[in-house]
Structures are given as structure tokens and as C-alpha cells.
Amino acid sequence: MFGSGDTGRPRRKTDNVRRRKLLLSYAPDWVVTIALAAAFFALDKVTGFKREFSVTDTSLRHPYAVHERVPNLALYMIAIVAPIVLQWVANVFTIRSWWDAHNSTLGVILGLSLTGAITQFAKITVGRPRPDLISRCNPVEGTVDPTFGLSSAAICNQSSTYILEDGFRSFPSGHASLSFAGLGFLSFYLAGKMHLFDRRGHAAKAWIALTPLAGASLVAISRTMDYRHHWQDVLTGSILGLVTTYFAYRQYYPSLASEHSHRPYSPRIKRDEATLPMHRPTPSADVMYSGASGHGASQYHDGSEEEVELVDGTVRRGGPGPLEDVWKDGDERRKSPHDGAI
């Protein structure tokens, strides 16, 4: 007992050192993510371009909704907090890996930050009027357009600078882009964990993976109900959020069609073979197990024996185990003749 305790301390110390190196290797990702998030909030304070409009344009004469169906606070809870929490819960019930928790959190925040920065930049440069612009503008009764031209923001009597500025930020929809970025990442994450594209056609898995996208669609549709956006703004924002978050997802996870879609990519730092313990080539207490991913029978263990190397297609139920386990999938992928491009 005393011997096992003594050997455990050096191993824990080695794991801690390598864990710090591992996290530092992803510092640039976090710096870029934080910078994009800062740009998102900073651009909101910039005075944007205001496109000319016609006071007779009926598409701009909808009422200004003081109370939105999905206010900003609710949007942040739906697009940021909910995906992160649900990904952690899914992690606990699948591979129980702190590395997967890190990658999923970084990925969703990167997707949101990139989407938000692009959305805000487009808003202040395009300057498209919202459907409720005339109500926001509050022009003098009887105001008409110039004989040979359109009206500008100069005719507005709105006392609130923020309300008037926001009236020219219709394209694209920020609620749509952010909701599809956050919930879209969650949808990809769940699809990967369940091996949605394993060619076995499980309808239940498809419904679970698509549920977050249904929630994002409801948020996007609510923007037309509040007359905050035209349908083109909502459609463009939704596509932008989904495409951008898939880009972020693929930075840390393989293709959804990969047999390893339930696991994140291997760490970036070099594996130090000299500091890793030896692994027995054949586990002593393996059983044949057909994994939840549907890849046939493969050797599986419950994680109680930490020096046993996991085999392709299995999901750790115990853990989290030692740090070196996160390298194993990368090593096995490089050795496997059936990898293909991911």
C-alpha cells in the first residue's frame, strides 16, 4: 500500500506538469476567442452607416416592440449558457473526459465570438433599416421624401440615440446568428457523440441532434414576430451562425462521419514517451462490447484499470483517467488503415 502511494505522487506531478503545457498550447486559441468577443461588444458602440429610406415604404412602418419575445439576456442564456451546460452533461454520460469538456467549451465560445464579430461588422457597414424604423424615427407628421431622392436619418425626431442607431442594424440578425452558433455547435456535438452518420439510420438520434436547431429556429423566427428583422436578415444570420460554428467545431473534433466522432482531436503538444508508463498489449479483464457508436464488437473496459489502453470504438465510463489517455486516439488513428480524411 505504501509503495503504490509513493509511485502515485510522481505520476500525479508529471500529469500536472504536462496538463499545464497542454493548456498553454491552446492559449492562442483562447486569446483569439477573447479578442473576437471583445470586438463583438466594442463594435456595438460604433456609429454605423445609415442607409437612406422612403417614408412611404410599408415594409418599414411596423410598430416598435418595447418588450421583445427573446431579450438579450435570454439570448445569452440560450446561445451560450445552455450549450455549455448541456455539453458538460453529455460529457458526464459518455466519455467523462476533462479534455473533451475543455475542447467543447472552447469550441462553442470560439464559434459564438467569431459569429458575433462578423455579425456586428456587417450591421454597422450595411446599415439596413429595420421593419420598425419609421416608428423609431418618429418623423414630423406629413413628412415626404425629396422629389428626386430618398429620406435620411436627418428627418428623425427620436430622442434616444441608441434606439435610432439600432434601427439601422437589421442585416444580419444577431439573434439568429448567435442562436444558431451556440445551439448549432451543441447539435454537432451531440451528433458526434451519438455517431449520427454511422449508416444505421436511428431516427431517435436524429431527433435528439436536431432539437437544438429547432430551438435556434424559434429564436430566429421570433425576430420577425417582433418586427425587428426582415426575413432575409434572419435567413442570412441563421446560415452565418451555422457555417461559422461548424468551422469552430472542426478545429477540435473530427468529421461527424468519422468513427472517432465521439472524441476530440488529440492534443497539439508532443507526446513524451519517456515519461509515460508502459501499457500491457492485452488487457487482463476485457470483454467483447458493441459500443453505442455501432461499430461492431470491440474490446472494452470500464476504466478501473488505468494502465490498460483503450481500443477503437469504446467509450470510457470511469474516469477521467490519466492525461496520457488523450493521446491514444490520435496514435490509433495514425496506425489505422481505415481512417480516411477527417
Automatic annotation (TrEMBL):
GO CC aspect terms: membrane
Transmembrane segments: 21-43, 73-93, 105-122, 174-192
Biased composition (Basic and acidic residues): 325-342
Residue ranges constituting the Phosphatidic acid phosphatase type 2/haloperoxidase domain according to the UniProt record: 105-249
Localisation per UniProt entry: Membrane
Region called Disordered, residue ranges: 290-342
InterPro entries named in the record: PAP-like (IPR043216), PAP2/HPO (IPR000326), PAP2/HPO_sf (IPR036938)
Pfam families the UniProt entry points to: PAP2
Transmembrane helix as UniProt keyword: yes
GO molecular function annotation: phosphatidate phosphatase activity
Keyword tags: Membrane, Transmembrane, Transmembrane helix
GO terms (BP aspect): phospholipid dephosphorylation; phospholipid metabolic process
Family: Belongs to the PA-phosphatase related phosphoesterase family.
Protein name per UniProt: Lipid transport protein
Species assigned in the record: Heterobasidion irregulare (strain TC 32-1)
